[in-house]
Amino acid sequence: METIFSKIIAREIPADIVYEDELVLAFLDITPVNYGHTLVVPKEHYINAIDAAPETLAHMMKVAQKIAQALKKSGLADGINLVMNNETAAGQEVFHAHLHVIPRLVDDNTYQKPRYVTLKEDAYQETKERLKAALAE
Ligand code: AMP
């Protein structure tokens, strides 16, 4: 599947690459939440975390940790959000798996926490049962 990220991986279009190994590429996001916002992208095509090979996801997280440590060490971050948007409903726009490593500074108010649903006890319990049943399949 051809996406903007597969073109970056194939070096057909440029990107500000900060890290590469045999499985992943990491480059700066062109519309960053903060300076240093980096995307960790597997070279093999997966749509997102839902279809990706677990080993690939684990490696993406390993690289994200390395980048998070470097962002803190270089003074570009006080904290880090690690985010994957999976499917349109969750805000995914590029359909090649990617993990956002988002540097945060104290009181920057950039990446906001979500609003919470008003909890209804019966719905809360029902979701627990539905999730447990699906996990047991
Ligand atoms: P998502 O909503 O999780 O699919 O996010 C896709 C991200 O890819 C956005 O934050 C975009 O700014 C970023 N993006 C899109 N095109 C490029 C590009 N050519 N180089 C770097 N980042 C990109």
Strand content: 15-25%
By CATH, the architecture is named 2-Layer Sandwich
CATH topology: HIT family, subunit A
Q: Whole-number radius of gyration?
A: 17 Å
Topology order in helix (H) and strand (E) letters: HEEEHEEH
CATH 4th-level superfamily: HIT-like
Number of strands: 5
CATH class designation: Alpha Beta
| Largest β-sheet summary | 5 strands, antiparallel
Description:
The chain has 137 residues and is an alpha+beta fold. It has a single domain, classed as HIT family, subunit A. Helices cover 31% and strands 18% of the residues. The protein is built from 3 helices and 5 strands. Strands 1-2-3-5-4 form a 5-stranded antiparallel sheet, with helices on one face. The longest helix has 20 residues, at 54-73. The model has no long low-confidence stretch (mean pLDDT 96).
